[in-house]
C-alpha cells in the first residue's frame, strides 16, 4: 500500500468543540487532493452499573439529530491532556448525580476515522453513590436505568444508534459473559 503524504493543514474554522481543517495531500495514486479533517481534543464516557446490575443511561436532546437519544454518560475533555478517567468521573457526576471510586477502563473507540481524530476512552463505574446532578446550563438530562438485556434489545431494534454507547454496551456484555 502506498503512503499518503500530507503537504499542508490549514485551519478553516476554530470551534468550541472541535476545529475544522482542510488538508492538502498527495494521495496514494500521486495526485494532489484536498481532504477535510476535524481535530477533536478527545472525550470520555462511562457505563455506570448499579448494585442490582442495571445500567444508568442519560436521555437528552441532540441537536445534530433533532431528537432525544439514550446514551451512556459522556463528555469532552476540558484539555487535550486531561486524564480520561478524571473526565469520565466528572461526566458521571454531572450528568447522573452519581459518583464512584471504582472506575475501570473498558474500551477505547475512534468515532469517525474517515475525517476526525476523536478518541473516547470508556470506563465502567461500580459502587455508585447517589448525589445531585450538576448539569451545564444548556443541558436537560433524564437519568434512566436498564438491564444489559433491555439495552442490547434497544440496540438491535434501532432505538439506540449512538456508536460509543453501542460499543460500550457490547464490550460490557462481553466482559460480563467472560466473567461467568
For the terminal residues, how far apart are their CA atoms?
43 Å
Structural classification:
alpha+beta
Total number of beta strands = 12
- Model regions low in confidence, pLDDT < 50 over at least 5 residues: none
Give Rg in angstroms: 18 Å
Side by side, the strands of the main sheet go: 7-4-10-9
Total of helices: 3
Helical coverage, percent range? 10-25%
For the biggest sheet, the summary is: 4 strands, mixed
Q: Shape from CA axes? A: globular
Average pLDDT, all residues: 94
Strand content: 35-45%
3D architecture notes:
- It is built from three helices and twelve strands, in the order βββββββαβββββαα.
- It has helices spanning 84-96, 148-156, 163-178, and strands at residues 5-14, 18-26, 32-40, 43-48, 55-62, 67-71, 74-76, 98-99, 102-110, 119-126, 129-130, 142-146.
- The longest helix has 16 residues, at 163-178.
- The chain has 180 residues and is of the alpha+beta class.
Summarize the structure.
The protein has 180 residues and is of the alpha+beta class. The protein has helices at 84-96, 148-156, 163-178, and strands at residues 5-14, 18-26, 32-40, 43-48, 55-62, 67-71, 74-76, 98-99, 102-110, 119-126, 129-130, 142-146.
Amino acid at each position: 500500500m502506498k503512503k499518503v503524504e500530507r503537504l499542508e493543514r490549514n485551519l478553516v474554522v476554530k470551534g468550541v468543540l472541535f476545529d475544522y481543517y482542510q488538508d492538502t495531500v498527495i494521495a496514494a495514486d500521486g495526485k494532489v487532493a484536498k481532504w477535510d479533517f476535524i481535530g477533536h481534543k478527545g472525550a470520555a464516557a462511562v457505563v455506570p452499573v448499579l448494585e442490582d446490575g442495571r445500567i444508568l443511561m442519560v436521555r437528552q436532546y441532540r441537536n445534530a439529530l433533532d431528537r432525544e437519544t439514550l446514551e451512556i454518560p459522556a463528555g469532552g475533555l476540558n484539555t487535550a491532556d486531561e486524564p480520561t478517567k478524571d473526565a469520565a468521573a466528572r461526566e458521571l457526576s454531572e450528568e447522573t448525580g452519581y459518583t464512584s471510586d471504582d472506575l475501570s477502563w473498558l474500551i477505547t473507540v475512534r468515532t469517525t476515522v474517515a475525517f476526525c481524530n476523536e478518541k473516547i476512552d470508556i470506563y465502567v463505574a461500580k459502587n455508585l453513590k447517589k448525589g445531585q446532578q450538576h448539569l451545564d446550563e444548556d443541558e436537560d438530562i433524564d437519568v434512566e436505568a436498564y438491564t444489559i438485556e433491555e439495552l442490547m434489545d434497544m440496540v438491535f431494534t434501532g432505538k439506540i444508534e449512538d456508536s460509543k454507547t453501542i460499543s460500550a454496551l457490547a464490550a460490557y456484555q462481553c466482559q460480563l459473559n467472560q466473567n461467568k
